[in-house]
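Hallway conversation turned thread

IA: we were arguing at lunch whether anyone had actually written out Glutamine-dependent NAD(+) synthetase end to end. Turns out nobody had. So, for the record, here is the sequence (730 residues) and right after it the C-alpha cells. Reply here if something looks off.
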Amino acid sequence: WCRVAAGRAGAAPRAASCRGGAAMGRTATVATCALNQWALDFDGNLARILKSIEIAKYKGARYRLGPELEICGYGCSDHYYESDTLLHSFEVLAKLLESPATQDIICDVGMPVMCRNVRYNCRVIFLNKKILLIRPKMILANTGNYRELRWFTPWNRARFVEEYFLPRMIQEVTGQETVPFGDAVLATKDTCLGSEICEELWAPNSPHIEMGLDGVEIFTNSSGSHHVLRKAHTRVNVVNSATAKNGGIYVLANQKGCDGDRLYYDGCAMISMNGDTIAQGSQFSLNDVEVLVATLDLEDVRSYRAEISCRNLEASKVNSYPRIKVNFALSCSDDICVPTCEPIQWRYHSPEEEICLGPACWLWDYLRRSNQAGFLLPLSGGIDSSATACIVYSMCRQVCLAVKNGNQGVLADVRRIVNDETYTPEDSQEFCGHIFTTCYMASENSSQDTYNRAKLLAEQIGSYHINLNLDVAVKAIVGIFSMVMGRSPQFRVYGGSSRENLALQNVQARIRMVLAYLFAQLSHWARGMPGGLLVLGSANVDESLHGYLTKYDCSSADINPIGGISKTDLRSFIQYCMENFQLTALRSIISAPPTAELEPLADGQVSQTDEEDMGMTYTELSVYGKLRKMAKAGPYTMFCKLINMWKEICTPREVASKVKHFFRMYSINRHKMTTLTPAYHAENYSPEDNRFDLRPFLYNSTWSWQFRSIDKQVSNLESKEGKPVLEDVD
C-alpha cells in the first residue's frame, strides 16, 4: 500500500501532480471535523472519532482529518508522562484500524507516540488497516495556556524519515513491522497531501510554505486551538492567507468543548482554497461531532499556481520532501459531472454573541461531565452575577434548541441530570427552573433596589430563587470575636478604623460563600430532589487583576464563566441579552452603579461603589491589564505608554499617580490569584495564576526602583514645560 520515495533527482516523481491529473479525475472530496473530546475518556473519544469517520464516508469523503491528539484528548497535561496514556492510545488506534468504518478512506488521527524513548505529538495516517505515515509535530506551542515543550519534544529533522517499529498489538492488525516516521508527505494517485499540526500554521516558517513549493496541493492541520474573544478573525485570516500566496487547499480540524480545564476549544473547522473560505464549521454548538465535507477541483489549484511567477521560480529550487506513495485516489476517474464547492463568506460572531455562546457551552460540558444536578449562583442584582445568570439562561436556550433539532445525546444528558427518563425540555425557562438555583443573600447593608432586581431577573429566566438574610450569622461570628478579644469592631461611618471597616465587610462576604456551598449541597435534598449543585462564581477579569474581591467570598466557587471577561464587555453583553432575550429586568441592572453593598446604607441608599473603592475606573483597569500582560509592560513602561495614550486627559504627574496606584494594589492583592476560582479563559490579559499568567504572589509593593524611574521622567517632562519640579509623585 505504500513505500517511501526519496524525492531526489532520479527518484520517483516528486508529486502526483506531475502526472496527468485529468486522466485520474480532478475533484477531491475531503472531510474535516470538530470533536468534543475529553482528556483520558478513551471510550468516548473512540466513539466520537468513529462517528466522524462514518459521517465523512457517508458524505463521500476519501480523506478524513481529526483534531490534535484526539485519541487521548488534548488536555491530558502531565498524564502525557504516563505510559498508560501511550498504551491506551495505541489500544484505541488498534480499534480504529480494525473497524469496518475506516476502510476505503484515508484516516488522519492524533495521538502521542514514543520513539527512541522520546515522546512526540503525532499524526497517524492510515488506510485499509495499513499505517502510511506517523508524522511528529515539528513546532510546539509553548506560550499562553500552552505547555507542549513540558511533555513533548519537537521533531527537528526536516524532510527526514526513519523506520518506526510498531507495538505488537498494532503489528497483529496491520501486518507491518515498521512504518515511516518523520517529516514526509503523501503522494496519492491524483494529488499530494502534507500535514501541519496546530502551531506550525502560526509559525513564521510554516511547513506549508515549502511543501506548497514542492508540489503539495492539500495541506492539513489538526488543531487544539481554544477560544479567545475576537480571535476567530485571526485564525481564519491565517488559514486563507496560507493558500492565497501559494495556492492550494487547506483543511483545518479543531477540538471543541471543555475537555477538563479552563479552556473552551471553539471548533471553527474549515476548508480553504486559493485564499477563499470554502466550508465553515460552527464555533459554538452542543453537537459532540461535527463534520465538514467539501468537493474541490484540483485543477483550480494548478491553474491558480500557474500564473504566480515568483512562486514557480522558488519552486524550481526547493528541496524535496520524502513522499509516501499511496495506491489510492481522492477522486474518481469519471467525475466530470461532480459539482464542486464554491467560496463562501465567513460569518463571524460579535463579541456579545461569543460571550453568550462560548461560556454557555463550557458550562454545559462541565455540568454533564461532573454528574451534578445543576448550578447555584449567589445573585446580587449587580452586573457580574446577572451576566453569569444570563449565561446559564443562554445554556438552557441552547439545550432546548439542540433537543428540538433532534440531538439525542443532549436529550440523554438532560434526562440524566434531572433524573427523569421521560423528561423533554421544550421551554428554556422551565428547564432553567430544573437545573438553576439563584440565591439573594441580604444583609442589613443591602438595598431594596438590588433585592428587586435579583428577584425580577430570576422570574424572567425561570430559576428557582431563594431569598435569605445573613445578619444572624454575621452577628454570631463578630460576637465570638468580641467575646474572646473584649472589643467590638465598627464600620468607618460609626467611627471605626479602615481595618475594622474592611474586616466587617469580609465577614459578610465570606459567610456568603459558606451559605452558597451549604445550599448547593442541600437545597435539592430539601426539595425532595436528588443530586448536588455546582456553585458559580461571578468575579470579572478586571476585579481579579486589581484584587477587588475578598479571598474566600462568593468569588470562591466551583467554576466561574465570566472570570476571563472584562467589565466593559459584560456591560455590552447585558445590553445584548436585554435586546435579544427580552429580559427587561436587565435595564435597571445596567444603569445602576456597581457596588458590593458591604457597608451601611445612607438613608436607605447605597453609599459604596466599586470604582470609588478601587480608586480607578473599570475602563482604566482594562487598559492597565492589557498593557501589563499583552504589552509586557512593567510600571515604567506602562507610564511611558500612557503619557502618550492619555495626553489629552491627564498630565504626566497624574498618569504617574494612576500607574503607581494600580501596581500597588495589583502587587498587594496578587496572592488572591493563587486561590482564584477556575474560570473560562476569554481574554489575553487574564491574571489567572494556574497556567496563563505566572508571577510571584509576594511582591515588594513599594516598587522603589521602578517608581523612582517614573519620578525622574515626570521631573524631566515638567522641567521642559517650565513647571515647578516636585520631589516625588504621590
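OS: looked through it. The longest strand covers residues 106-115.
IA: good, adding that to the notes. The chain has a mean pLDDT of 93.
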